[in-house]
Design brief:
alpha/beta; Rossmann fold; Dihydrodipicolinate Reductase, domain 2; six-stranded parallel beta sheet; 8 helices; arginine biosynthesis
């Protein structure tokens, strides 16, 4: 059994991890750290887990009882935690923050997008889990980049309120978000760095603009990204390109019909749909921001790192209504 520790156990991504890992056949959850909840039952925070587990939060991480640590803290906190704590080299680390996603001197984390770096993930000890918008947008663009066919691209993507994290803000509480919609961080979202890094990895010399308009949606979870770019491919050629690229990636499905968000909510699936309009290729990409865009992808990475079948514990059911 893989012994799992979670640091920052009170947030949304930690809650999703717990829901997945409690039912994972190869996992034993041995430590769930939360500075503010030490000694409290897990179900006092993640209330839907009442009756599912008797686990309690720990105020400190016990490294003697874990094989892998999931870091579920806010951006900037993971780097601080690893600097302040001497984590044994034998313990694998999966970081769900932004801290290690971009390549830099001294950064030995592998970027954990299985549809991009599956073989590297299998032998990695440290994984930087991708961002939610970044995951959805990369699934829309990777096949084109791999074929050297990606040009300047325009992306509009809408996300649910859980994408802003558990701590309430002026734009995430119910009375503001309900029956409302707004653009934020136009052309300057923090996930653009990792998106461009991956595209350059596949399409050497890629310098084209990725014009990204993020949108706050009035729903709780899920991301719908629509991207378009000029192409000389026919629609049939583009669909084949995408199906060939994703044929060995069990969680990314190239749909033959226009998808909707409820096909992916509460699952680790990414659904991609392609249409050609005159000289432009339209790509629609949908994921659950908390699962495929965070915790489910993190467990997928764990499965790969420990030599398990990559779908283990991750066949979740979508919500039809």
């Amino acid at each position: 059994m893989i012994k799992v520790g979670i640091v920052g156990g009170a947030g949304y991504t930690a809650g999703e991890l717990l829901r997945i890992l409690i039912c994972h056949p190869e996992v034993e959850i041995t430590c769930i750290q939360s500075t503010s909840n030490g000694g409290n039952p897990i179900s006092s925070v993640h209330t839907d887990l009442i009756g599912e587990t008797e686990l309690v939060f720990s105020s400190e991480l016990d490294t003697s009882v874990v094989d892998v640590i999931f870091l579920c803290m806010g951006h900037g906190k993971s780097k601080e935690f690893l600097t302040e704590n001497n984590i044994p080299a034998s313990i694998k680390i999966i970081d769900l923050s932004h801290d290690y996603r971009l390549k830099a001197d001294g950064n030995d984390f592998i970027y954990g997008l299985p549809e991009l770096n599956k073989e590297q993930i299998k032998s990695a000890d440290k994984i930087a889990n991708p961002g939610c918008f970044a995951t959805a947008i990369q699934l829309a663009l990777l096949p084109l980049a791999a074929a050297g066919k990606l040009n300047e691209v325009h992306v509009n993507a809408i996300t649910g309120s859980t994408g802003a994290g558990q701590k309430p803000t002026s734009t995430s509480h119910f009375s503001w978000r309900n029956n409302n919609i707004s653009v934020y961080k136009a052309f300057g979202h923090q996930h653009l760095g990792e998106i461009k890094q991956s595209l350059k990895q596949l399409q050497d010399g890629f310098q084209e603009a990725v014009n990204f308009i993020p949108v706050r949606g009035n729903f709780s979870r899920g991301i719908m990204a629509t991207a378009y770019t000029e192409t000389d491919l026919t629609e049939e050629e583009a669909i084949k390109l995408y199906k060939d690229y994703y044929k060995d990636h069990p969680f990314t499905i190239v749909s033959d019909s226009n998808p909707h968000l409820k096909q992916v909510v509460n699952t680790n699936k990414g659904v991609v749909f392609i249409e050609k309009h005159d000289g432009k290729l339209l790509i629609i990409s949908m994921i659950d921001n908390l699962i495929k865009g965070a915790s489910g992808q993190a467990v997928h990475n764990m499965n790969l790192m420990f030599g398990l079948e990559e779908t283990t514990g991750l066949r979740l059911k979508s919500v039809a209504f």
